[in-house]
Amino acid sequence: MRIYSWIILELNLKHPLVHMNISLVIPAHNEEKFIGKCLEAALANAPANLLEVVVVNNASTDKTAEVAAKFPKVRVVTEKRKGLTVARQAGFKAAKGDLLAYIDADTVMPENWFNILNREFEKNPKLICLSGPYHYYDYKPPKWQEALMERSYDIYKLTKALVIGGNFVVTRDALEKIGGFDESIQFYGEDTDLAVRLKKVGKILFLREFYMNTSGRRFHGEGFSKVASTYALNYIWEVTFKKPLHKKYRDVRI
Predict the structure, then answer these.
(1) What whole-number distance in Å separates Cα of residue 137 and Cα of residue 98?
(2) Would you say residue 156 lies in a domain?
(3) Backbone phi and psi for residue 27, each to the nearest 5 degrees, phi listed first
(4) How many domains does the chain have?
(5) Under a CB-based contact definition with an 8 Å cutoff, are residues 98 and 175 in contact?
(6) pLDDT confidence of residue 230
(7) How many CA atoms within 13 Å lie on the side-chain side of 34?
(8) CB-based contacts of 35: which residues, under 8 Å, 6+ apart?
(9) Residue 32 included in any domain
(10) Of 27, 106, 205, 247, which sits with the fewest C-beta atoms within 10 Å of its C-beta?
(11) Which range among 93-102, 159-168, 207-216, 241-250 shows the weakest confidence by mean pLDDT?
């Protein structure tokens, strides 16, 4: 019995976060066309410590809630106030896990996403937030655009504060310490604001291999140059002036 207890103690010391449960949170506003594929991919490789999937039905007028409710482990939470940060905060309040993983409703999770998540949080007890880049499954950027997107790693190296809003995991404790999401920010700059505040309480890790497949519908709808410049400017404004440059945004549903 003593030998058994010693082995368990050793395993827990080497992997102090191995028993941390995950709540997957997915904000969704009128996403009935995408939410099904998103949930299928997420649940296909769900680990044993995936406690729940919380879909925040954010002021939808379509069948987003009905589609999501058909999946196992999925709990639909209704947030009538429209807004991305409002939906993220509603998910935070509803989720019960120790790790809160946020993805967007138009994403298709890679097979090893949860494996990387568990690996990184298990081996680094000081880690409070993990994020990574997007890969686009319906948009092929030209070479110069790919080169521009690669600069995100340089930004992380420089600031140590980079979070992609549709692909990140944060500890509940860290999110509680910073007071959750800033609901005064409607869209642009919300993930940068989160990164800047999280950096004050712990380590943020941005990994190339921790990518998320997502739709390039905003590029199709607004053009790459406009989208890239808007995001870049709002990142700079958040880091420098602690507020986004742009307040207005357009919903893109293509």
Answers:
(1) 30
(2) yes
(3) -70, 140
(4) 1
(5) no
(6) 59
(7) 24
(8) 26, 28, 55, 64, 67, 68, 105
(9) yes
(10) 247
(11) 241-250
Residue 107 in 3-state DSSP?
strand
Q: Extract the tokens encoding 103.
A: 């993805």
DSSP H/E element including 19 = none
Residue type, 166: G
**71 is in which domain, residue-wise?**
19-241
Helix count and strand count (H, E) for the chain: 10, 10
pLDDT at 132: 95
Q: What is the pLDDT of residues 39-90, one digit of tens each?
A: 999 999 999 999 999 999 999 999 999 999 999 999 999 999 999 999 999 9
Asked, for residue 34, whether it belongs to a domain, the answer is yes
Residue-level length of the chain: 254
Assess if residue 250 is contained within a domain. no
The two three-digit tokens of residue 48, written as one number: 């044993």
